[in-house]
Amino acid sequence: MGYYTYIIAAVVxxxxxxxxxxxxKSKVSKxxxxxxxxxxxxxxxxxxxxxxxxxxxxxxxxxxxQMTDCYSPKxxxxxxxxxTYGQDTISAIAIAAHECxxxxxxxxxxxxxxxxxxxxxxxxxxSKAGPWIVIIxxxxxxxxxxxxxxxGYAISTIGIVVYFVAxxxxxxxxxxxxxxxxxxxxxxxxxxxxxxxxxxxAHKVLRAAGDTYAVALASSAVTLLRxxxxxxxxxx
Length: 236
Prior knowledge:
By secondary structure, the chain is mainly α.
């Protein structure tokens, strides 16, 4: 990937990221102003989903902040943010149902979900360490340019392999998140937590949230290709 190609790709992803974030904020804000027709709260949605899918031992906890909702398999808890916990809005129900979707994936031992959980700890380190290892390798290659040593190239390759773990994490995370949203939408539709005319907005909230992971994947792909270009080819 040439320098200018990389710049163009990076700018495109950045603009796309701004657009996705703006769309997510807009959809969540709109859905947060409309109460669900059933009057059910996000907490009750989680409780019903867990019960319907025969999942036990999971508790609901409040986590201060916005968009801090998450499912913690190690703690056996579903955390709901300020705008979700105890709320009966369309956005709150959609987000809570999505997080419960992850609990269902966990209970069913969904292969992609299990793989994502396996990659998560290493991916956090790899995303930061990989680029630095590549840079160190490139500097060593420049320093040893008069010798026949390929140590710098080898180190850069290791850095690329390390960063690939982060890229693989994002690659797996996107379908996992989409699947959790699909589970949430299905339960919302069958359980009647929101009316038929509210389902469309609930789906848009879920879709907008999922788009953020698509952007993360694209950004990671651009970075990976750039690292490969920085390393260059092996000297003959």
